Amino acid sequence: MFPTRHWHHMTTEEIRGADTSRWIAVLPLAAIEQHGPHLPLGTDLVIAEGQVARVIELLPRDCPVTFLPVQAIGKSNEHAGFPGTLTLSWETATRAWIEIGEGLAASGITKLVMVSSHGGNMAVLDTVALELRARFGILAVVTRWGRFGQPEGVFSAEEISVGIHGGDIETSLMLHLAPELVRLERSADFLSAQGTLKARYRHLRAHGAHAFGWLSSDLNPSGVVGNAAIATADKGRASLDHAAWGFVELLQEMETYELDCDVAPS
């Protein structure tokens, strides 16, 4: 049988009787954390749920993909100084996500995509992916919705580079997905210390190739960065679709790929 699009909608008997080795499981991850004065604590969760829903709309019916429930709380200790933030330690997150993979392996799953709407999860997920490969033989891919880039001409290069938390991109996504949760009158152009670093230093950055570990208040006292004041729902819709189509392509590539060490010339 083909999987249902939601893992938790199937029965144990349906999974037992299926060739689950052909399935691709998707584990979406998010966060509950401060997003400044204008966005809710659940911004990353709303975005993750919206992206999953759009991918499901776009997926070809014969693509054997099933989505696990979104992991709402992630590793967010860079935001722990702000009220409302909930975070797992890196130890707890690592253990929990490996154990989810272990359960999938026990059900016959051999391919997994872990996709996050929160950047703070990524370092943990890289470790988890390797552990799942080494321990259980799972092909585990790690990505973020933002890694598929942005549609041409929608956001400025500066905003894509610097506005990494609560700026134009995330605010636009929220205006598209849940406008009733956006306090637009409190939005602003939240400048980032990343800009100062770029002006003063050749290599040193808060994020990028030569980055230091930062707390969100190291970038801006408000805990957010980027120009939220120019956000629009139309830009959010374009961003959501761009990432969703990229993710569909990734899933289709995974469907045809096997870990057989194919080193033949392309």
UniProtKB/TrEMBL annotation:
This is Creatininase family protein. The keyword Cell membrane does not apply. Keywords: Hydrolase, Metal-binding, Zinc. Belongs to the creatininase superfamily. It comes from Segnochrobactrum spirostomi. Gene3D superfamilies: Creatininase. InterPro entries: Creatininase-like_sf (IPR024087), Creatininase/forma_Hydrolase (IPR003785). Its cofactor is Zn(2+). GO terms for biological process: riboflavin biosynthetic process. It holds the Pfam family Creatininase. The keyword RNA-binding does not apply. One of its GO terms (molecular function) is hydrolase activity, acting on carbon-nitrogen (but not peptide) bonds, in linear amides.
